[in-house]
Predict the structure of TraB/GumN family protein.
Amino acid sequence: MRLKPILAAALAPFALLAACATPADALAEDVRPADAAPAPALWRLGDADTTIYLFGTVHVLPDGVDWYDARIAAAFNASDELVTEVDVSDQAAMAGYVASAAALDDPRGLRGLMSEQSRSRYDTALTGLGLPVEAFDSYQPWFAALNLSVLPLLQAGYNPAAGVEMALAARAGGKARTHLETIEEQISIFAGLERDYQLTYLDLTVDGIDNVVPMIDEMVAVWLEGDAEKLATIMNSEMTDDYLYNRLLVQRNSNWVNWIENRLEQPGTVFIAVGAGHLAGPGSVQDQLQTRGHRVVRIWK
């Protein structure tokens, strides 16, 4: 198994981070015109009476990042419906549910489940973040791992309130709001992992903690440039475990493609804003849509 912490953070909205990418050869129209300005990637598909936009998001950004350009504004303003992965409107309720679901029912506590070597590295990581080593003792390994993936970003100045979903929600006005998954479904992706798998994931997170901020800095820069090929390469390099690749991405993307196909049966304009791996690489949303005969076009300007 090899699931790097940076990818886990990027795939879990309840862990606060996502981004957008697409494979280099997935879309015939994915060739940047010479006069197209650098900007986050946006795609469109539809039929005679339905238009669906696909936009990748970053849930946590530094304050002041300008990503809402004319293309995105035009697509968003034309849309009757905003679709996101989960309902992020009540952050307190979401955090409370996640913490409850992550509770560890084991008298040994989290650190008691670790080998001596793993516990030593883990303690050093928490101390380096300014946390007591017992901070997550009452929680399952996956929860500690997700927090260790995100805390360095928050300490580096990344802000959930500056994230794309929050900004879109604030602009949504009277648009219909739809969510592709429940928070319970998203939590189950990690909470359903076997205990040993979770502990290995936590070890990998600890080992990669110093690389989290530099990697996300690079990903955000590439996202802002709209370099879908490079961003897909970064994202795909982080996933080498077939089980998790299918669990985190391909299976969920298939469910979302089913939703999109059903939505195409109804008239209207829809703006779908989802996270990174879902628009990246083999099995991505675009890849599966095109396999089913739908034409997905990138909007450059």
About this structure: Confidence is low (pLDDT under 50) at residues 16-28. Residues 5 and 149 are 6 Å apart (CA to CA).
